[in-house]
What does this fold into?
Amino acid sequence: MLFGPPIRVARPLDWTGSLVVAASWLLVLLIALVVTLVRLPVTWVRFALGSPELVRVLLALFMILVVTWVRPLLIARLPRAASLFGGTLRLRERGRRHRVPVREIRRVDLEVRPPPAFEMLVVGLADGTTHEVCPIDWPGAAALYRALARRIARRR
It folds into this structure.
């Protein structure tokens, strides 16, 4: 995504992930309401060639862009979410949060697991250990996989 946030996040399919998505949609609706009802500064309307509709559309687009940048940051703070930001992969394994530097990751694979997970995104580290990152059916897991694979391929 060209204008997307610099973080890749896999959102867990539980109530916490659903709550963040619902809250972000509620925020978008609230922003749309405010943008339609707010009194616009005269200079903004003059700058938009006298078109208040253009100013309102631009305000709404800007606010939606802000929400799309903030949502992954909120999802990354969820207890079960896996995220890739900068050079660090954050994941949860056996009830604890781990930070894994990307430079230590040697491979990224999809492995079959028993239900309910079925397929898991798994990373192999330089010390020979493997860590389960997240189920591949979580929203954002495919983008997380692609980002990790690109970074590993770039190093070789």
